[in-house]
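<instruction>
Derive C-alpha cells from the sequence
<data>
Labelled lines for chain and fold
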Amino acid sequence: MNTPINGSIPDMYVNDVFSLPFTMEEYFSRQKNFHSQLPENSVVIIPSNPFAKRSNDTNFPYRANSYMLYLCGWEYPEAIFVSNNCSGPWNTSIFVQPNDNLAEIWEGRRIGIDNAMKNWPVDDAHSMDKSIEIIKNLLDESKNVFIIQGLNDKLDNLINDSLTQKSRKRNVNGKGPVSIGDPSYIINEMRLIKSQKEIELMQKASDIASQAHINAMSKSKLGDGEWNLQALIEEYFISNKSQCSYGSIVGSGPNATILHYNSNNSPIKDGDLVLIDAGCEIEGYASDITRTWPINGNFSEPQREIYELVLEAELAGINACKVGAPWKSSHYAASEVLAKGLIELGILDCTLEDALGDNYDGPFRNFFMHGTSHSLGLDVHDVGVISPNSEEHGRKLEEGMILTVEPGLYFAEWRTDITVPPRYAGIGIRIEDDILITKDGPVVLTSGCPKTIDEIESLIKER
C-alpha cells in the first residue's frame, strides 16, 4: 500500500472540522486592511504551497502557505485564494479541490466547494478545475496583478503571458494587466503585529514546547542517545495535537557547537552538555525554545562559567525588548555582556571596545556567530522587514511584536581559524526564549521552561 497523500481532512461529520482558529470578523478585518493598500483594478492571487517530495511517490507532511492561513485560514493543498476589485468593491474567492469519491477513498475527505463557501471567510468558492479559466477572465479586466510566484507554474505562466501578449483586442480595448507586484510585502508588515488571539495561540505553542523540554530533562537518562531525547520532545508535541515548527536540533558534547546541527544520531556521554533547540506550532503559529543542560545533572565548573555568562546575556537581551527601542537593542545588550564576560574569563585579551569592534563585529564574534533575535509567528523565522527605511539600528519595537532572544557561546575544538581555550573546548551553549513586546515591558511566553542552573540541576536530579 502506498503512503497516502498528506493534507486530507478527517471525516466530514466530526463536529469541529470547520472550526477556524479566528473569528470571521478577524479574517475580514485582515482582508480589508490588506485590500485598502492596493490600487483599483487589481487582482490578488495567492496559491497554496505545493507538496514537497520526500522520495519517489511519497511526500513530506503537508504544511499550508502562511499567507493563505493568515488571510482566510485555508490549510489544505491544491487551492488558490483570489481577490479583486475590478468591478467595484473587493470580492474574495477560493479555488479548492472538488469532492471526488475515488480521490477521497484513497486520500481522505475533501472540504468541497459548497462547504468552502459556507464556512470560510470568502464570498465565492470554485473548483480548482476552473481556476485558470476564471482567473484568465479576471486578468482581462484588471490593470494590476499581485501574486506570490514560484508556487504554481501554471499560474505563473498565465500571468506572464497576460502581461506580454500582443493582440488586437488588447490594442483596441486596453484590456489586461500592465503591472505585476508581490503582495507579501504588505502582508508581512501586517503580520509583524499580533492580535490577542494570535498571542493566545503562540502562548499555547510556547507552553507545549516548554513542557516538552522539561520532559527531555526529567525523563532522559545516562546511556541515551540524541535520538532518544528527540523522541521525548516530539512525542509530546504530537500527543498535544501540535507539530514541529522546524527540524529539532539535539546536539550533545561537541555537536552543540554546530549551530544548525540536525543529525541527532550521536550517543550522549556522561559529562556532556545537551543543546536542544526545538519548538512546535499550533494552527500554524510557532514556538522556538533552546535549552542547554548536562545529561548527568551536574554542570562542571567550565560549563557553569559559560552557562552563567550566556544566561546573563540572555536576560540583558530580554530586558532590552521594550516598546520604542530599536530592533537591534537585544543584540547590543547581549553582545556587550558576552564580550565583557569573555574578557573576564581570559578568553579575550583586549579592551571591551576592541572586543565589540566598530559595528559589534569584533573578536567576541569568534564565539558568538549568529544574531540574537528574529521575528516569530506563522513562520518560525517570521516575515517583516527589520529596517524598512534602512535604519542603522533597526525599526522601533511595537506592542504586539513577538521575537526570540537567543545568545550563545560556542567553543568548537576542531576549528583551525581561531584559538579555543582548552578549558572550554567542546562546550556549546545557547539559551532561547520567545518574547512578547508590551507597553508594560517584555513578557516571556516561554517562562515555563526552566533555565537557571539550580532549576535545571534540581529537575534532572529528581528523575
In short: The chain has a mean pLDDT of 94. The chain has two domains: 24-190, 192-461. The CA atoms of residues 249 and 275 lie 8 Å apart. Residues 192-461 form a domain with the Creatine Amidinohydrolase fold (CATH 3.90.230.10).
